[in-house]
Amino acid sequence: MFTSLLPIFLIIIVFYFLLIRPQQKKVKQHREMVSALRRGDKIVTAGGLIGTVTKVVNEAEAMVELAEGVRVRVMRHTIQDVLSKTEAAPGKGDGGARPANDPGGRPGGLLGGGLLGSLFGGKKPDNKS
């Protein structure tokens, strides 16, 4: 009986790792992106409109400026991507927090030097010794 159920269990495991788990990660990333939205961020809506967030109305809505003087309210979950993030205003006790995509002050950024830079065409490190 166990041998007849083994293929079904294997299929369930494969579906979990190839379909369910990656989708859960994607939903979690989108939820975090939308919750970190703030004024000044350039965004793309699910309808393909590009605009700048002028005001975060509440946890469900944001005011987006599409063109000079054209502002619309959008549901935050319809924001598909953030094109550029604004710099966070330093708050009390945050110690000058940097955005998550900040390379940590390393010269050249993520692809500047080292293995990734040499593989993907970033700046070559100077070896003048």
Explain what you see.
The protein has two helices and five strands, in the order αβββββα. Among the domains are: 1-35; 37-85, SH3 type barrels (Roll). It is elongated, with a radius of gyration of 22 Å. 6% of the residues are buried. The protein is 32% helix and 22% strand. With 129 residues, it is of the alpha+beta class. The model is unreliable at 94-101 and 105-111 (pLDDT under 50). It has helices spanning 2-35, 114-120, and strands at residues 42-45, 50-55, 61-67, 70-75, 79-84. The protein has a five-stranded antiparallel beta sheet.
Given the C-alpha coordinates, what overall shape results? Answer: elongated
Measured between the Cα atoms of the first and last residue, the distance is 69 Å
Q: Give me the Rg, rounded.
A: 22 Å
Percent helix, as a range, is 25-40%
| Lateral strand order in the biggest sheet | 4-3-2-1-5
Beta-strand residue percentage: 15-25%
Any low-confidence stretches, pLDDT <50, length ≥5? 94-101, 105-111
| Overall pLDDT confidence | 78
Q: Which architecture of the domain at 37-85 does the CATH hierarchy give at level 2?
A: Roll
Largest sheet: 5 strands, antiparallel
* Secondary-structure element series: HEEEEEH
